[in-house]
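Agenda item 2: s-citryldethia Coenzyme A complex prediction
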Amino acid sequence: MKQKVKIVIDGKSIELPVLESTEGLNVVDVRGLINEGMFTYDPGFLSTASCDSKVTYIDGDKGILLYRGYPIEQLAEHSSHLEVSFLLLHGELPTSRELNAFESSINENMKLDEHFKKIFDGFTSNSHPMAMVCAATAGLAALNHDNLDISDSEYRLNAATQLIAKIPTITAMAYRKSVGKPFIEPSADLSYAENFLHMCFGEPRSKPKVSKTLSSALDKIFILHADHEQNASTSTVRMAGSTECNPFAAIAAGTAALWGPSHGGANEAVLDMLIEIGEEAKIDAYVEKAKDKDDPFKLMGFGHRVYKNFDPRATVMQSSAHAVLEEQGAGDDPLLAVAQKLEKIAREQNYFVERKLYPNIDFYSGITLKAMGIPVPMFTAIFTLGRMPGWITHWTEMVSSPFKIARPRQLYLGSQSRDYVNINQR
Ligand code: SDX
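Presented output:
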């Protein structure tokens, strides 16, 4: 029997259908409310489902994260970022033949045309890498607009391939620009993460030399960031894409949203915070600031809209952080000591326990990236690189079936209608 909920509006009883999920919460379908002269109100969308989706499932209370049904812990241990990208895009794990073909198509499309690289001439070594990545991603729309047809599955698949293939090259170029070094071309002989590290840290005309430990740790970081349901940046991609705009422009919008310190910019903010705290002796004062309602300071890397338990990605990140620190001989990094003390405090002190503020993915990813020699301003660009397959999968899922332009309403609290007053009467 189909579930329904009943509400009474001005004495009239209204029945609203309940739509059932395959996992997690069901939803009340409120689309009929407008006919009853009423909106729902939910700033920040704490209890609003903006769409239906088959891509990713999160259970925030149990700390569960599934990509197309597969637990993130298993994918992080056994899979690769490109295999996860195929899984997200197509809904199933690839056969070895499918994976080889996908890896080749990505590798073949990593290069950027010489004239396109000039987009970076508009920046200086002081330009924030996220500004460069955002601009270059939007710039890809110029190379993929004449044939724009979002109803064509071939166009959609090509857009996904171009974005997944070119985001490492764009990100590496942003890094090379920020350190004033010449660009390095991708190599046909390297894996996805190896190519990224080579394009960042390689030398022109020299044989690639990439650490397997670092490239596998980085590939795992990409997997952990690949998708996360309807977070702010993915919702931005969906909202922009709902106007039928060029998908590369919609992805650039998502990149801009990710940059904020409350979202993907948190990994950079975590390192800035750890560096500002600097030593264990100063931690207590900062923890008090975080608790103080009148102080805007928050413990970056803690808390999450959905996870009210440990972020399963943070658990995986924590172990790979230790492995990278050991390999880099930075196991005694004072910032790691500060991080570990903060985590202990958050597990014990009431303020954090009551509000279920656990470390999230950004807490440990920053420490790992720093140990890998990646400069702090590049951290969110790395998050962008990892999240690319998730964004383009959600865009594809939305535009491949009937969709409506996203157009929320509001609770109006402004002036009621009033007549214009001539300036000499004001
Ligand atoms: C990501 O959505 C996703 O899936 C995002 C993401 C993804 O993969 O796409 O997981 C990636 O963005 C992770 C989150 C990274 N951001 C940070 O680490 C920044 C620090 N965290 C906070 O800004 C905050 O926790 C948010 C933004 C993550 C969540 O904010 P909410 O859900 O709106 O919660 P809230 O601000 O209403 O906080 C509830 C309470 C408040 O106290 P009270 O008013 O109840 O007394 O908890 C407090 C907040 O003041 N609080 C914090 C805190 N986070 C929340 N207090 C101190 N430090 C913090 N970090």
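Discussion summary: The beta strands are 4-9, 12-19, 27-28, 56-59, 64-67, 70-71.
Owner for follow-up: CH.
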